C-alpha cells in the first residue's frame, strides 16, 4: 500500500502560507532542491488544490528554459511523469499532462488510490491537506522549516486535530532551512 505524504515549506511558527509576504528564504538553493527531488522521486501521484496546482504547473515546461541546471531538469522530469489530481470547484481546465480535475475531496477515493498505487502519493496545500489529515489519510509529514517567524497565515497543521508522530529523520541545511520527517503512529 502506498503512503500519503504531506510536505510543505513552513515558517518557524508553523505557517505554510504567510498572511503577508513570503515564508522567508532557505529552499531556493541547489542543495535543498536536490534533496527535495531525491526525497520525493517515488511520488507517483500529486494531490493539489487549485492554487498549489497553479504554482506547480511551472514544472510542465521548466525543461524548456534556457540553461536549465541538472537538478531542475530532473525535478521537472519527475513531476511530468507523475499523475496529478487537482481538487477545485472553479478550475475549468488543466495545462499539464497526466492531470485530472476532481470537484470535491473524497476521502474514500483517496483511500482506494493509496491501496491500489505502486508509488507514494503527496498531498500539497494546507487546505487540501487539512481534509486529508482530518480523514486520517496522511501517513508521513515532511516539514521544511524556514528561519522566519511570520506571525499569521494558513497553518501547516489544521486546528482541532491531535496527532502523535514519530521523528524519522532530521537535517539542517547550510541555508538555515531545517528538514523534519515524521511518521504517523
UniProtKB/TrEMBL annotation:
User: What residue ranges are annotated as transmembrane?
Assistant: none
User: Where is the Bacterial bifunctional deaminase-reductase C-terminal domain positioned along the sequence?
Assistant: 3-178
Give an example GO biological process.
riboflavin biosynthetic process
Q: Short name of one Pfam family for this protein?
A: RibD_C
Instruction: List, alphabetically, the Gene3D superfamilies matched.
Output: Dihydrofolate Reductase, subunit A (3.40.430.10)
MF terms from GO for this chain are: 5-amino-6-(5-phosphoribosylamino)uracil reductase activity
- Please indicate which superkingdom the organism of origin belongs to: Bacteria
PANTHER family linked to this entry? 2,5-DIAMINO-6-RIBOSYLAMINO-4(3H)-PYRIMIDINONE 5'-PHOSPHATE REDUCTASE, DIHYDROFOLATE REDUCTASE FAMILY PROTEIN (AFU_ORTHOLOGUE AFUA_8G06820)
Record protein name field = Bacterial bifunctional deaminase-reductase C-terminal domain-containing protein
Q: Which organism is it from?
A: Occultella aeris
List the taxonomic lineage.
Bacteria, Bacillati, Actinomycetota, Actinomycetes, Micrococcales
Amino acid at each position: 500500500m502506498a503512503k500519503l505524504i504531506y510536505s510543505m515549506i513552513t515558517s518557524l511558527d508553523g505557517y505554510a502560507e504567510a498572511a503577508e509576504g513570503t515564508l522567508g528564504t532557505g529552499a531556493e538553493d541547489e542543495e535543498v532542491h536536490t534533496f527535495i527531488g531525491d526525497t520525493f522521486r517515488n511520488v507517483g501521484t500529486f494531490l493539489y488544490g487549485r492554487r498549489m496546482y497553479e504554482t506547480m504547473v511551472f514544472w510542465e515546461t521548466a525543461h524548456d528554459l534556457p540553461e536549465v541546471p541538472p537538478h531542475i531538469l530532473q525535478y521537472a522530469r519527475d513531476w511530468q511523469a507523475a499523475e496529478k489530481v487537482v481538487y477545485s470547484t472553479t478550475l475549468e481546465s488543466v495545462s499539464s499532462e497526466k492531470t485530472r480535475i476532481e470537484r470535491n475531496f473524497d476521502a474514500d477515493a483517496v483511500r482506494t488510490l493509496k491501496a491500489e498505487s505502486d508509488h507514494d502519493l503527496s498531498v500539497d496545500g494546507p487546505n487540501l491537506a487539512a481534509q486529508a489529515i482530518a480523514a486520517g489519510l496522511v501517513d508521513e509529514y515532511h516539514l521544511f522549516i524556514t528561519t522566519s517567524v511570520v506571525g499569521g497565515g494558513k497553518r501547516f497543521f489544521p486546528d482541532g486535530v491531535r496527532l502523535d508522530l514519530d521523528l524519522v529523520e532530521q537535517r539542517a541545511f547550510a541555508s538555515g532551512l531545517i528538514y523534519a520527517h515524521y511518521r504517523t503512529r
